[in-house]
Amino acid sequence: MDTLQVHGFLSQALVITDDNNFFGSSSEDEGSFEFTEVGLNASLRPHQDVLLAAQVLSRRAGGDSSDAQPKLDYGLIDYQMLSDQKRTFGIQLGRIKNPFGFYNQTRDVAFTRPSILLPQSIYFDRTRSLALTGDGVTLYLEERLDSGVVRGQVGLGEPQAGDDLNQTLQLHRIQGSFDPQQSAIAQVRYEHDAGRIVAALSHANVRSKINSRYPDVGDGDFYFRPWIFSLQYNQELWSVTAEYALRRSGLKNFNQPPLNFDTTGESWYLQYTRRFYDDWQWLVRYDSLTSNRSDPSGKNFEANGRGPAHSQFADDLTFGLQWTPHPQVMIAGEYHHVDGTAWLPSQDNSNSSETSKHWNMWLFQLSLRF
């Protein structure tokens, strides 16, 4: 029991927008306090080669307050079959955080994020359940070289499919529900010179059956196949990070052809962070999202009567500041100037035709941990 560790965190944010809503009614009155993250995790090593770990998370981010009900975020058994000075090989079983880009595995812990909001072009909050975790098995291998460390992970399991995905795909048209199927995710990551240069390649093949409740609409299939290329350069006082993604997704096999589609989206961001004094950091980032590479401006989308053109893209210029007066306390603020609404949560903006193309957002957050 001397290996037992228990940790927790709590974050509370205020979100203010001049137009549109993000995480609650942020454009009204004094803004929205509906962005709260509370987590409690524990780990134990009953044997030197075995790790047990789990985390319970309560997260409210606008929409239905029932989202704040505590849920099992991850819970796994990690067995290292081989571990020496040169390599580690192991297997994980249970609910596992997906190795997706640089930040997905720790995205809900504010102290691990460079900003209050992660780049929404890569780390969607409007469909976060799809990328967050999977129930299954993961194999991992870490090779320690003279020049750096290579780590590879391959996972098989069933993804999570929450109401956020249901709303984004507008499955209310068929009263559809998700039945996640066996899916795969993999990542190769290389850290050179003790992390001075970090590069990663992530890929997933996510599948789910969609069960229709309409008598004249048969069942169909959903697929999501993203590629993410990640690169970071670190110096003592500053870091530059860039990630680029191609995201192919769609619906198929419905007996009503208008329901089927195949789309490839494109995302990227470039981020610069600067550390100063002992406990301050500022950030500037440009983040770009295109929902459909074949229709980057959204004009065809609007011409077909599916919604406003600006709902198909989003370009976000972000400035952020973090202060850590104590290792267990962090205060942060940031400003976003956004052109487009592609990553606006649909649960906070029920009518996309009433959203504004150009909008601004201010966020302030207090975070604690133990």
Major sheet details? 16 strands, antiparallel, barrel
The oligomeric state is: single chain
CA radius of gyration is 21 Å
Total strands: the figure is: 17
Strand numbers in spatial order across the main sheet:
1-2-3-4-5-6-7-9-10-11-12-13-14-15-16-17
Which structural class matches the secondary elements? mainly beta
Shape: globular
Q: What is the helix/strand order? A: EEEEEHEEHEEEEEEEHEEE
Unreliable stretches covering 5 or more consecutive residues? none
The number of helical segments is: 3
Terminal-residue CA separation: 19 Å
Measured as a percent range, the helix fraction is under 10%
Strand content: over 45%
Quick check: average pLDDT? 92
Tell me what the structure shows.
With 370 residues, this protein is mainly beta. It is built from three helices and 17 strands. It has helices at residues 128-132, 163-168, 299-303; strands spanning 5-17, 32-47, 50-61, 71-83, 87-97, 133-144, 148-159, 177-180, 183-192, 197-211, 220-234, 238-252, 261-276, 280-290, 313-326, 329-340, 358-369. It has a 16-stranded antiparallel barrel with strand order 1-2-3-4-5-6-7-9-10-11-12-13-14-15-16-17. The two termini are 19 Å apart. The relative contact order is 0.14.
